[in-house]
Amino acid sequence: MAYMSQEGYDKLIAELKRLESVERPKASAAIAEAREKGDLSENSEYDAAKEAQAHLEDKINRLKETISEAKVVDTSRLSTDAVQILSKVEMTNLMNKAKMTYTIVSESEANLREGKISIKTPIAQGLLNHKVGDEVEVKIPRGTIKLRIDKITVG
């Protein structure tokens, strides 16, 4: 089960609709166009179009699976006492005094440019269930960092 925000769930639904109503017909048209070009045994355009369609169908199926396993979290019922899914955490890296803010989200909602990190990342795992003022050590690929949680809000 993947816990996510209503916004994240709505984005998945919109992407699924786009893939099914726009991309799927495009893939079918590309196959039909390639088929019209003659001998299918030596038609690389046809093979490429079939392969693109297979990738698209796979993407649609994975998206449907994610949606079926999604559990939308009512953000009004979330607590800011400790870090959890959909918490927006302001923290300080105690080694270089850098301030960072991340919102902890499901894997499908993760987007580093928007400051949203997957709950499965080492940083999110290290922060979970900790409170404001806590100092946590987190093992990341480059070593261990020490973070102080400065503020927890609902993201």
Task: Chart the SSEs and their pairings.
Layout: E1 2-4, H1 6-35, H2 44-69, E2 70-72, E3 87-93, E4 99-105, E5 116-118, H3 122-127, E6 135-140, E7 143-154
Parallel strand pairs: 1-2, 4-5
Antiparallel strand pairs: 3-4, 3-7, 6-7
Helix pairs in contact: 1-2
Summarize the entry for a quick read.
By secondary structure, the protein is of the alpha/beta class.
| Low-pLDDT windows of residues | none
Largest sheet: 5 strands, mixed
So how many helices?
Answer: 3
Q: Numbering strands along the chain, what is their spatial order in the largest sheet?
A: 5-4-3-7-6
Q: What's the alpha carbon Rg, rounded to whole Å?
A: 22 Å
Distance between the termini: 20 Å
Mean pLDDT: 92
Class from secondary-structure proportions: alpha/beta
- Order of SSEs, N→C? EHHEEEEHEE
What coarse outline follows from CA principal-axis ratios?
Answer: elongated
Number of strands: 7
How much of the sequence lies in strands comes to: 25-35%
Report the helical percentage: 40-55%
